Amino acid sequence: MSQLPFLMVTIVAATLCLVARRRPQLEVPVGLGGLAVATVAALVIAPGDVLRLGSGEVLLATAYGRLFLLLGAGLGLVLGVVALMTSWQPNLPAAMLVGLAGMGLGLSLTDPLIALLVLLGSAVAVALVSLDASVSAAGVRVVVRQVRTIALAGVLAYVAVAWAAPALSGIGSDPAAFGLADLAIVLAVALRFGAVPFHRPVARLTDTAPGLAIPLVLVWGPAALAVVVLGATDGSAMTFLVPSGIGQAVIVAVAGASLVLGAVGAWLQDDLEHVLGYSIIQDAGFVLLGLAIGGPDGHEPARVWLLIMLTTKTAFAAWVTVVEARFRTGRLPELHGWARRSPLLAIALVGIVVATIGAPGLLAWSVRASLVQGAAGGPLQAILLLAGLASLVYYARIGLVGLGRPSLLVAAAPTDRPVAAARTGTAIEAVQAGWRTNRAPIAAGFVLVLVLVSLVVATGGLGGPDAARAAAPEPSLPALGQ
């Protein structure tokens, strides 16, 4: 089956959510129902199916695109349930559906230029839909900055791909032109992920965006952009700015700075949402390393890493939201003893760490090592490997805070032990009462579901490595550098 049903479901459900915005009694069932149907529609996509549109564009369903959309819709559904059980975030389902529609179209278009335009438009729409809940002047400024960053990154990527396209006469034989175009592409990806030195908007965004919208805005959309530019440059075997390699050194330096400073920034933050934002900055460093390597040898592990990043950061965002709702604070100095109060959330955090970093022999570990080894050698390789492990520092800080003596806020929070609701009224009313009474452990359970998905992907489940290996463009399609 083609991706047409998925696109129709997401577009129609997003439209209905926007019509029903600010009316939770309609937005909740329409949004969650749309995400559920979209998950099923993504599941039945047949890789290799081709759909020709009336204007001549071709939609090609790939195994990687199918898995990307399946994870996005499924994780989005769980995020919606978590929002329902903590604090409902208006427009969240609409934003996720708008984003999924744009990603579904962008990841299946065989023309990278049109795909970039689609992703640019959908990313701007997601930012406007998900971040317009704040009516303050500061909130409006953050939205404007985010849209400006998205537009700048999109234009950079579009111009770079068009500039280096072999169809443009006089450019195909100039290696330096390809090197500069590749640098512009990497700059676009760095801007979208907020990699160092473009990290300041991330901190502002985490102050304004709803917690569960952070992975959609800072991970899902940038990851889709990275997938498209990886596909556009798969055929290039040249290093950046041949023969000097200066461009490759610049990209490795930016990636290394993101790995180090992202971890340092996360460690210095007291607010959990800021920790989440800086952890995204750090993990984006591995994406840049994949672009620095160039060609399929670097792009295959980069694609796998994007799937791991998609799932782990979504799980971490849900974990942060549940912690904030449960203990009525997201500040680490006020969260002493959280792990002792909620062993389920403690297990979830350990699972997030394992899925993000992995262990020798696991896919996540080998992917990170492959990206580092392909991009650098000698002492620099060891430095980058250690920089990638620096995330253990801020995760350890969160864990040590959780093992302390419970603070007043933590001690007053509910435990993980289920509580029997009063048996009054009908059976439906009893179920609703039990749901309300046990929201804390149930929400932690849904976070564990997200963590489980992350662990499955991080260990090579769901066919991630095979899908990444088969994601190279068709021979008939032009690739940069050829």
Please give a structural write-up.
The chain contains 21 helices and 2 strands. With 482 residues, it is mostly helical. The protein has a domain at 137-469. Strands 1-2 form a two-stranded antiparallel ribbon. A hairpin with a 5-residue loop joins strand 1 (50-52) and strand 2 (58-60). It starts with a helix and ends in a 13-residue tail after the last helix.
What is the C-alpha radius of gyration, as a whole number of Å? 22 Å
Shape call: globular
Q: What structural class should be given to the helix and strand makeup? A: mainly alpha
Please count the helical segments: 21
According to DSSP, the number of beta strands is 2
End-to-end Cα distance, whole Å, is: 32 Å
Low-pLDDT segments, ≥5 res = 167-173, 235-244, 473-482
Share of helical residues: over 70%
Largest sheet: 2 strands, antiparallel
Mean pLDDT: 81
Order of helices and strands: HHEEHHHHHHHHHHHHHHHHHHH
**Proportion of strand residues:** under 5%
* Order of strands in the sheet with most strands: 1-2
